[in-house]
Amino acid sequence: MTRIVVDPDSGVAPWRQVRDQLVHLIRVGELPVGAPLPPIRQLARDLGLSVGTVARGYRELELAGVLATARRRGTVVAAVPRTDAVTAAALAEAAAEYAASAKALGVDRQDAVQALLHACRDE
């Protein structure tokens, strides 16, 4: 498997970096359907991450139907990710993080939505 690299200074959660890089490797064919992935513990050790961090990346892709885990076979690529399934999962996670940040700031829902709409207009 092509090497996955996690940049702790990127501002992107490590589990998301693992997930996104796996999606890329699958989409470009470097990890074809049926290809085995390293065990979670091994990949976590190789990347210097916690087992839970790597497990979350794998779990997100399992929920999207991209990976499948069976006890004897381990984790394998189950399907090439559909853009909408992976994007929807990533968008839901980003929305949850934004909502938590807004709540921590004490911002009400209407102001949080307005800030988001303003940020979308600026791009």
Automatic annotation (TrEMBL):
<dbReference type="Pfam" id="PF00392">
    <property type="entry name" value="GntR"/>
</dbReference>
<keyword id="KW-0238">DNA-binding</keyword>
<protein>
    <submittedName>
        <fullName>GntR family transcriptional regulator</fullName>
    </submittedName>
</protein>
<feature type="domain" description="HTH gntR-type">
    <location>
        <begin position="12"/>
        <end position="80"/>
    </location>
</feature>
<dbReference type="InterPro" id="IPR036388">
    <property type="entry name" value="WH-like_DNA-bd_sf"/>
</dbReference>
<keyword id="KW-0805">Transcription regulation</keyword>
<keyword id="KW-0804">Transcription</keyword>
<dbReference type="GO" id="GO:0003677">
    <property type="term" value="F:DNA binding"/>
</dbReference>
<dbReference type="InterPro" id="IPR000524">
    <property type="entry name" value="Tscrpt_reg_HTH_GntR"/>
</dbReference>
<dbReference type="InterPro" id="IPR036390">
    <property type="entry name" value="WH_DNA-bd_sf"/>
</dbReference>
<dbReference type="GO" id="GO:0003700">
    <property type="term" value="F:DNA-binding transcription factor activity"/>
</dbReference>
